[in-house]
């Protein structure tokens, strides 16, 4: 085994979601569909994670009262990682191809024929994650984690805020 790189992470992985999407790709021409064209239904299965970046917790981002009873932390909003497609769980559900399309695909032996399906599925999973409550859940989970941590350190009044700009 060879270690290729180490990345220092300054973020809290706060929520993860599993998604399933249906990708429908249809190609057609002026010729009848039984001769040319294809219709493919692909089931894409994948995940996306939401995280909060802690790398900018400097300066005014962390404020502590003189009596160490109150603390305010200002963070940037949670963000989504790029979605990940599980190629082992994803699959073609249904496919119909015209005769000439099948012959052309067979003769060309194109190994990247499913690449477009994978890319579209990944984009749809990313879009589904953006519409889901994943980011809100990540912010709530981060607030809960930091509140518990600060309470264990003796703080009584804890405020966790999210700002649109840099937290420092």
Describe this structure in words.
This is DUF4230 domain-containing protein. InterPro entries: DUF4230 (IPR025324). It comes from Amycolatopsis mediterranei (strain S699) (Nocardia mediterranei). Pfam families: DUF4230. The protein is about 25% helix and about 35% strand. Strand 3 (about 60-65) and strand 4 form a beta hairpin. It is built from 3 helices and 8 strands, in the order E-E-E-E-E-E-E-H-H-H-E. The longest helix is centred in the last third of the chain and has 19 residues, at about 135-150. Strands 1, 2, 5, 6 and 7 form a 5-stranded antiparallel sheet that branches. Strands 3-4-8 form a 3-stranded mixed sheet, with helices on one face. The protein has one domain (about 10-165). By secondary structure, the protein is α+β, with helices and mostly antiparallel strands. The model has no long low-confidence stretch (mean pLDDT about 80). The chain has helices at about 100-110, 115-130, 135-150, and strands at about 10-25, 40-55, 60-65, 70-75, 80, 85, 90-95, 155-165.
Q: Supply the helix-strand structural class.
A: alpha+beta
Question: Uncertain spans, ≥5 residues at pLDDT below 50?
Answer: none
> How far is the N terminus from the C terminus?
40 Å
The helix count comes to: 3
How much helicity do the residues have?
25-40%
From the spread of the alpha carbons, the general shape counts as elongated
> Percent of residues in beta strands?
35-45%
Overall mean confidence score, pLDDT: 82
Please state the CA-atom Rg, rounded to the nearest Å: 24 Å
Protein name: DUF4230 domain-containing protein
InterPro entries: DUF4230
Pfam families: DUF4230 (PF14014)
């Amino acid at each position: 085994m060879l270690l290729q790189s180490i990345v220092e992470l300054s973020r809290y992985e706060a929520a993860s979601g599993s998604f399933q999407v249906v990708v429908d790709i249809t190609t057609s021409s002026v010729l009848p569909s039984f001769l040319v064209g294809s219709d493919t239904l692909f089931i894409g299965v994948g995940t996306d994670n939401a995280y909060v970046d802690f790398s900018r917790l400097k300066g005014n981002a962390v404020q502590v009262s003189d009596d160490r009873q109150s603390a305010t932390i200002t963070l940037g909003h949670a963000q989504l990682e790029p979605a990940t497609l599980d190629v082992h769980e994803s699959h073609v559900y249904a496919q119909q191809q015209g005769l000439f399309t099948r012959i052309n695909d067979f003769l060309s032996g194109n190994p990247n024929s499913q690449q477009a399906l994978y890319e579209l599925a990944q984009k749809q999973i990313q879009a589904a994650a953006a519409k889901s409550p994943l980011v809100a859940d990540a912010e709530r989970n981060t607030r809960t984690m930091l509140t518990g941590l600060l309470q264990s350190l003796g703080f009584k009044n804890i405020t966790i805020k999210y700002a649109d700009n840099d937290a420092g």
